[in-house]
Amino acid sequence: MQTLPVRLVPGDDLRVALETIARDRAIGAAFVMQGIGSLSVANLRYAGLDQPAQLDGDLEILTLAGSLAADGAHLHMAVSNAEGRVYGGHVSPGCIVRTTAEILIVCLDGVHFSRDLDPRTGFPELSIHPQA
């Protein structure tokens, strides 16, 4: 197991940046253990909905976690706005870093993740494979 601390900068798309890091580093299996920082826009897909909701304004990232591999990510995040209201859901593209995002990625040895369609859920779900 290896740790990879990451800092994203203003204007970065949080999800796109993490997926790019995973692809560029050929990460086979990792988890985002935690993330904090701020966003100017958050696109979060709430449970049971097909499209993300867009939140605009000064937003604090309270928590960020999920799985990550070279072929994609499954991330959830909670953010709060300037009034202290908290929103959380599935991280979609378009979450734009306002000042910083500080993220800890833990890369796993000996396994690799893929996303395979699960007929029971109708979604591409995590598949865990031993690394050859």
TrEMBL record:
Chain segments annotated as transmembrane: none
InterPro entries for the chain: PPC_dom (IPR005175)
Gene3D superfamilies per record: Hypothetical protein, similar to alpha- acetolactate decarboxylase, domain 2 (3.30.1330.80)
Entry protein name: DNA-binding protein with PD1-like motif
CDD domains: DUF296 (cd11378)
Stretches assigned to the PPC domain: 1-129
Pfam families associated with the record: PCC
Coiled coil: none
Superkingdom: Bacteria
UniProt lineage: Bacteria, Pseudomonadati, Pseudomonadota, Betaproteobacteria, Burkholderiales
